[in-house]
Amino acid sequence: MKLLLFDVDLTLINSGGAGRRAMTRAFEELFHKKNGFARVHLAGRTDTLILKDALQRCDLPWNPTVEQNFRQLYFKYLKEEMQVPNPDKKLMPGIPELLKIIRARKGLELGLLTGNWREGAMIKLGYFDLVQYFSVGAFGDDSEHRNELPEIVVRRFTQKYRQSIKAEDVYIIGDTPLDIDCARSFGARSVAVATGLYSFEQLQKAQPDLIFNNLSDPQKFLSLITTKIL
Asked: Which of 87, 125, 205, 212 is the most exposed place for a label (fewest CB within 10 A)?
């Protein structure tokens, strides 16, 4: 059994900036600060760290209650923002075709590994009808440190399917160097996709096990994984 763990933003989908806009609206309503995330780097980071960064830049304290209040507003506005027409809002190349093929193939299981809080990930994926493909996952709720998420999702996989899985049979697919580092820290295989903010060359410097410009050719993706890694 092989477990393929996908990142969400700019790997599976492009929300057209809905996440950042929803966070900005929630931040302004709670803290009366405009453009709270203007200088905050989002790509590859967990939502909790993103929020803490924004709070720190505005000299505001973080605590669990602050985060919970922010989450509630963020999820409310994210649902609204996902409905706003935007030419950039789309499925990434090859999705959902690749997911359909993997789901139908014996010996492969789909999961999520994302810095999104779980409800936020479900809102984004739900808009594109992708939730159905993923049986397990680890999210920003589980740890603010991305490198701790593989162990969590593997534990959930083991509990759900009553079988263990080796780290080298886990594949972490994402669009940032942080995804590559996350895989390496766990001993998993890293699959980089240059569909986000990082170019093919930038991702290549992080030395992933495999790298693609995009996932527009599902058969090539599976073939390369099978011949080079499995």
From this structure: 87
